[in-house]
Every structure is written in C-alpha cells, then in structure tokens.
Amino acid sequence: MLASVFRKSTPINYTLIVIIVLLMFFLYQIQDLTWTLSYIEIGKKIGILALIFGTLFFINFIVKKNILTRDSVYTVYFFILLLLFFPSAINNWKLLFANFFIILSMRRLISLQTLKAPKEKIFDATLWILVASLLHFWCILFLFLVYISIIFNVSRDYRNWLIPIVALLAFGNLFLLYALAFDEKLLSNITHNFTYNFEVDYFQNKYQNIAFSSYVVAVLFFVISAIFSLSSRPLNLQGSYKKIIFAFIIAIVIFILSPQKGNEILLFTFFPLAVMMTNFVEYSQNKINQEMVLYVTTFVALFNYFMQL
Description:
With 309 residues, the chain is mostly helical. It is built from 13 helices and no strands. The longest helix is centred in the N-terminal third of the chain and has 27 residues, at 39-65. It is globular.
C-alpha cells in the first residue's frame, strides 16, 4: 500500500508530505515550549521549518530534473524518514543550512552530465561548498566531489580543473576582507574548527545508540545494493549515480572527522542515501519487497523518533 501511495507525484502525495513534516516538526518542538516566549525564537522555528521545506523542494527538483528516479516522491519520503531517525537535527540550524548549501552544490554537479555551461556549474558548486564550510568546516571535503565530477564529465578541458581554485581564491579574499573589516573573530573561528575527533562515544542515552545502530544496518543494506546494481543502470546515468555514492562516502568521512560528534551530523548523508533507497524500491521487480522495505523503514524510523522525544 505504501509503495502505491508514493509511487506517483500527485497533489495528494505532496499534501501528505507536508502533513508528515508538520507533525514531525511540531511534535518535537512541543517537548520544550520555552521558545514560544520569545518572538525571535518563534521566528527561528518558522525559519527552520521553511528551510526543511526548501530542502525537500530542491531534493525533489534534483532527482526529477536529472532523472535520478522515476516520477515518484519516494526520495522526499525517505529523506523525511531519515530525519525521524535523528530528530535532534531538526533544531540544528547550522547543519540544516550547511546541508542545504551542499544539496545546491550537488544540483550543479549532477547536472554537469548535460555538458551545458560546465564552467559556471563548477564555479557555483564550489562556492556553495565553501559557504557550507563556514557553517560546518569539514563540508570543505565536498570539494573532492567537484573534481570527481570534472573527471566524469568535463576532464578534457584543462581550464575546468582550475575553476575550483579560482573560486576558492575569490571566496577566500572576500571572506578575509569581511573578517578584517567587521569581525576578526571569524578567522579564529575557522582555525578553531580545523580539528578532528575519531571517537564515537557521544551517546547520551540508549535510544540514540539504537537509532545509530539501525541507521548503520540500513546503510549497509542500501549502499551495498546500490554499488552492486550500478552496472545495471542506464549508461548515461551511471556517472550521476557514482557521484551520489561518492557524496555519501564524503559525508561519512565528515561524520568521522567532526570534532563535536552527534547523530545529527549524519544529516549530510540523507540526500544520497534517500536516492539509493528510492532506486532500490523503484528497480525492485517484487512488489512484496517494495512494500516490506517501505513498511520496515517507516516503522524503524517512527520507533526511533518517538523513543527520542
């Protein structure tokens, strides 16, 4: 039943998505209502909600525009389920913005396959990644995805290899001028964030541990399936799927290196993983398998969500 509900993009499906997001958001927010006492905090909550909807819009746009999935809303639905795994990400506006900028950069990098205006796309993608790195420093590792995309699509023109460096220099100069003119603490903040921590012992309760463990199981299942089924995908789309897999790997490295560990840092993995989950469901010939994947994932996500409220 779930498979048939989200198989097509219809106004009813989008209405369901909006309702699910609103319920997820407000159920988490009512655990502590102190934010309702300040107009500024209320504005922040509204801004975060708008940012979540904006992220879902661009995710849907990217997968449809680049034919990464069929005409369904599975990717958006899976992204919401992954948010349910780690609801603490809902209140982390810095990570939400950083992830939003990374998704904007991936939009440009994935569309490189069309070979239209590649230099502009490379420049834009690099800038979005650099902006994201101001919010979470290790997002800068997504610059590797820029060069991976160049290798896949536009490696013959040597100028394309220099564009990320030009973008980095331009952005660095603007940031340095702004910091020197208005806030020198920005420079110290950057150097302070240039740290790492490999320890994974941050769990505050057993439910965070359970959520992380169930997420790891989902990752192993869907990522391995995506890698082994890559050769069966259309040749013109294999480069895009490879970018999705590399984006996921980079996001995992960011989680490993991040000095302030938390399940919410896995937010950067949600978009590529949601695409891989969607492909698994859409390319599965067995309808029972489709329903099982959707029901099990939904149940586990809801369980983890309510246990962490």
